[in-house]
Structures are given as C-alpha cells and as structure tokens.
Write a structure and sequence with these properties.
There is one protein chain. By secondary structure, this protein is α+β, with helices and mostly antiparallel strands. The chain has four domains: 51 residues, no CATH class; 112 residues, Beta Barrel (Elongation Factor Tu (Ef-tu), domain 3), CATH 2.40.30.170; 57 residues, OB fold (Dihydrolipoamide Acetyltransferase, E2P); 76 residues, Helix Hairpins, CATH 1.10.287. The protein contains six helices and 14 strands. The strands form three sheets. It has a six-stranded antiparallel beta barrel with strand order 2-10-13-12-11-14. The radius of gyration is 36 Å and the shape is elongated. The relative contact order is 0.17.
Length: 331
C-alpha cells in the first residue's frame, strides 16, 4: 500500500511539472515536492498503522482438552472415529469394568452384613432393656448391645461412603465427551492400557463450542485497540471471503516477561523489546466460522479503532486485495 501511495503521488509530478507545467523543473521545486510527499505519505502511513492496524499473524483458536480417565484399566471399546462430530456426553471409550464391578459387589455385601448386624443389635437392645427394667438382667449387657448398635451404624456409614466411591469409579469406566467437538488423531484401540496420569492422556479432544481468532500486534499498534472494536479477517483456506468480528479481550503481556523461580540471576541482553501482544477476536457469524478448522491461519487481520476513521479505508482496501490474492496461493 505504501508503494501504491507513492505511485499515486508520483503521478502528480508528471501532471504538475510536465503536463500542466504549473511549476518550473528546478531543484528547489522538486525538493519541495519530494519533501512534501515524504511528509504526507509518512503521516498517512503512521495514521494507518496506528488507527487501523493490520497483522498477518492470526489463527483460529479452539480449546484442546487432553482426555485423562479417572480410573485406569484396559480399553475394551472405542465406538468413535477420528474427527467424528460428537455431542456432549457421547461415549469416547470404555474401560474394562470387571474389577470395579467386583469392588461394588463386595462393598454391597459388606453393607448388607452391617445392616444385618444393626438389626440384630436393635433386637438385643430391646430385649436387654426389658430385662433391665424387670431387674432380670444386668445393665452391662444392655450397654454392650448399645455399643454394638453404635458400631453397626458407623460400619453402615463407612460402607455406604465406600460403596458410593466404588460406584463412581464403575461409572467412570465409560469416558464421555466433555463438550461438543471431535477427537483429533485417534490412536486409542481396544487392548490399550490407560492410566490416570495427566501427562499420559489417552486422546486430544477439540471443542467446537468456541471459535475465536488469536491475533498478535506490536505494542505500538495495540495502544488504541479496545474491546468492541470491529475487525475484518481473511483466511488462506477461504480466498476472496472477508469475515467480520469484534475484539473481545486484550492480553497486555507476553511470555518474555515471565520469570521462573530459580537460583539463577536475571540476565539482561540490552536488546530492544520486540514481543507482540495477543488480541482475542470473536466472529460476528459463528455459523460461518464453523467452516474454518482449528488453527486455520489468517493471511490478514485488520482492527478498526475508534480514532482515525478516514484511514480505515486503506486497511479495508488492502485486506480485500489480500483476499483476492489468496486465489494465487500455491497449493
């Protein structure tokens, strides 16, 4: 665009000096003409980059969730296929439930036994209480059965809690989709052993509930960008099409400012800071955004700030030229 502005301004030289002959072709006049052009074009470019900044560093952002089961075991069924569209709650895979079913059955039997002991203790408490009232039995026997009744109540409470946890583990042998989305690079097969270790996830689940664009801008061009500013975007995979959106979040920071705790001293390089700040953009048409895959790259992203609206047209024209040039991209 700078070259286009320079060519347009250069055409005025032939118009004013050659065609209309309004000015004499002297060193002074040419110097004034060139100097004025440099200042004018520089001012326009500065306003353009400041009030309608553009970037080619943008991509579709979606949440990727590592699927780690809550129980470990051997996979017995994987009823899905890679990139298959799934709804929240759909089954991803099943773990062999046999050992967990045994645990439930064992605890259920222990709970039934504790309930029977409680029932016996209640009967004996009533019997011993009647004997004590009739002065036909010792108080110690009643106290003994009251203690056994208390122990039975505690056993029932403990087994009930253990049974609830065992039932939860049994239910967790069926792993379900946490959101609407799909599984990318599905390699899990029946016979694989899965664990509950977070670093050993079984698969990666891509959520399709959020379609946002993460674009980076220089620290100088981001200063006038604010939440709610309109945005236009062009993607390499969809040449000729311009997508609308708006800024929803600004992250005024980067990883270069993060210092981890260590025993090392901070080393300053003396180099100027060139890190860029990310801007989160939301599509105006969420349904249209669904045709763009996760991590789809944007060839141009333009943000139209609340200031300098006359220069917005430069970004609009540049972005649309970029959209049509996308047809010439080598496959």
């Amino acid at each position: 665009m700078v070259a286009v502005l320079s060519m347009i301004y250069g055409s005025f030289y032939f118009l004013f000096f050659k065609k209309l002959k309004l000015f004499a072709t002297t060193v002074k006049n040419i110097s004034i003409f060139v100097g004025f052009g440099v200042v004018m074009i520089g001012s326009v470019v500065y306003a353009w980059w400041t009030f309608a900044p553009m970037t080619a560093d943008g991509r579709i952002f979606q949440y990727v969730i590592p699927i780690v089961p809550n129980v470990k075991g051997i996979v017995v069924d994987v009823p899905i296929e890679g990139t298959q569209v799934l709804q929240k709650g759909d089954i991803l895979f099943k773990i062999d439930p046999t050992p967990y079913q045994y645990a439930v059955d064992q605890l259920q039997a222990s709970l039934d036994q504790a309930a029977a002991q409680k029932q016996l203790a209640e009967i004996e408490v009533q019997r011993a209480s009647g004997l004590v009232k009739a002065s036909a039995g010792p108080q110690s026997q009643l106290d003994q059965w009251n203690a056994k009744l208390t122990i039975a109540d505690a056993s029932i409470a403990g087994f009930t809690a253990q049974l609830g946890n065992a039932q939860w583990q049994l239910d967790e042998t069926t792993v379900r989709a946490p959101y609407e989305g799909y599984v990318f690079n599905l390699q899990l097969r029946p016979g694989n052993y899965v664990t509950t270790i977070p670093v050993a996830s079984s698969m990666s689940f891509v959520s399709t509930e959020v379609h946002s664009v993460l674009a980076s801008f220089s620290q100088s061009s981001i200063r006038y960008i604010s939440v709610g500013d309109p945005v236009e975007m062009v993607f390499v995979s969809k040449p000729g099409k311009v997508y609308g959106g708006k800024v929803v979040r600004l992250a005024r920071g980067s990883g270069t400012s993060q210092i981890s705790a260590s025993g090392q001293m901070i080393t300053m390089t003396g180099q100027p800071e060139t890190s860029r700040w990310p801007v989160v953009i939301e599509f105006d048409d969420p349904e249209g955004a669904e045709e763009l895959p996760q991590s789809a790259g944007a060839s141009a992203v333009a943000v139209y700030t609340k200031k300098g609206k006359p220069v917005h047209v430069i970004s609009k024209v540049t972005l649309r030229i970029n959209a049509w040039i996308g047809y010439l991209t080598s496959p």
